[in-house]
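Agenda item 2: magnesium ion complex prediction
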Amino acid sequence: MEVKQHTDHIELEETLLKRIGQIADRDAVRAFVVGGYVRDLLLGRHVTDIDIVVVGDGVAFARKVAEVFGRANLVVYETFGTAMLTLNEAKVEFVGARKESYSKESRKPAVATGTLEDDLSRRDFTVNAIAASLNADTYGHVEDPFDGQGDMRKRMLRTPLEPTATFDDDPLRIMRAMRFAAQLEFEVDPAVLGAAREMANRLSIVSQERVSEEFLKTLKSRKPSIGLQLMFDTGVLRVVFPEVAQMAGVDQRKDHHHKDVFRHTLQVLDKVCQATDNVWLRLAALLHDVAKPRTKAFVEGTGWTFHGHEEVGARMIKPMFKRMRLPMEHVNYVEKIVRLHLRPMALVDEGVSDSAVRRLLYEAGEDIDDLMRLCRADITSKNVRLVEQVRKNYEYVASRMEEIEKKDKIRNWQPPLRGEEIMEICGLPQSPMVGILKDKVTDAILDGLIPNEHDAAKAFLLSIKDEVIKGPAIKRPRRSDLGVLDDPTS
Ligand code: ATP
Ligand code: MG
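Presented output:
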């Protein structure tokens, strides 16, 4: 990211912006492009959405623009006095320059029209408070009353006003500070950090959707640990994601291992980010050891242990998704990765038998490669020989997986007997017993006892059903339920 020398003029190439400027000229209003677009252009980053501020009625201007472009897709947010239009695949947001801040009680935006500078002063950071004129007479002229460009050169996030005043107006800006620090790899001004620390609790009044959006944007950055460490240091993490903050256990006894879990997790997360852009795998990496604080026990002679943390952690995922209002379509994936994260390592201890590999391939399915990505990132030991050994072990596991997958095609495999057929053959109603029988058949195939064929499966079912149905209805425990897995790499 090369920061250009201070400029009072920028090249705005877009025909789109020029046309918006012409509409403003015809309408006799001053219009500016502002915020992220200008910031990213000056930083030489990839520019995404366009924010337009007009001195006057932003919504009325947006309606004009939509009309001139012949678009019917204008979305007006009356309560916020903003409007959004999608033009040439770019999202263009319009707002009128405003003077007053949100009223704290009603959360209704004040309608008072302000000057451009009033509007810029109400923005979150100086680097986001730079505007460039769109009117023909001053096209590209930069307005930078808070020296955002100076802060860009210093790679510094500073608020246009006193930080406490800026955060008081909208506490989400505290999260945005951490997000931009990670995304832009900028420092955060100490006064801003101080205000964040002081006001972290105010984040609890902000809507969960807005908080989670900033959290995910932090996770999407190249090195999310930058933002997460700041969130932790300021007490923000304790408010927005207590389970993650607890991995550092600061409010517990002097206890080294706890702190290590958080530090280890950040290292794993940054490492996995080099291997994937998938934010859900990144989230799984953040949460893979989330249950360590609640499963830890001190065993004389062994030290701290975390038996069953992968299963306990997996069961924490859904409640966290619900509370954070994260999209539920990804919950099973994250849960699965957390649940299975020690299994490839356990395979090595078991001698990487065909049946154990088949079982893991079956349970991980399509997500096996992501699981292996996390496992490889999960090696953070300082012991070079151990690291090398673990790396080799994973390589061996991966090659065995490839071999067995080629032979047995387990990843997308469905057991040859479906639930309905088992019910029919055994004369059973829908009940847990059907699942138990299905598991037995599946196990027999994965263990190589019977071939992966319908008739063989049926014959096997007939041979075991009476005894199984007579026996106690115990569902096969997941291997991780047995609490025998522990993590040698962290
Ligand atoms: P990106 O689009 O990459 O997430 P951005 O800076 O464009 O970053 P947006 O959320 O799109 O962020 O907001 C656009 C602009 O609106 C910001 O640059 C900033 O000037 C202003 N802004 C957005 N949210 C806030 C807020 N909560 N408080 C103050 N200003 C804000
Ligand atoms: Mg934006």
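Discussion summary: Residues 35-36, 48-49, 51, 123-124, 128-129, 170, 172-173 surround adenosine-5'-triphosphate (ligand 1) (CB under 6 Å).
Owner for follow-up: CH.
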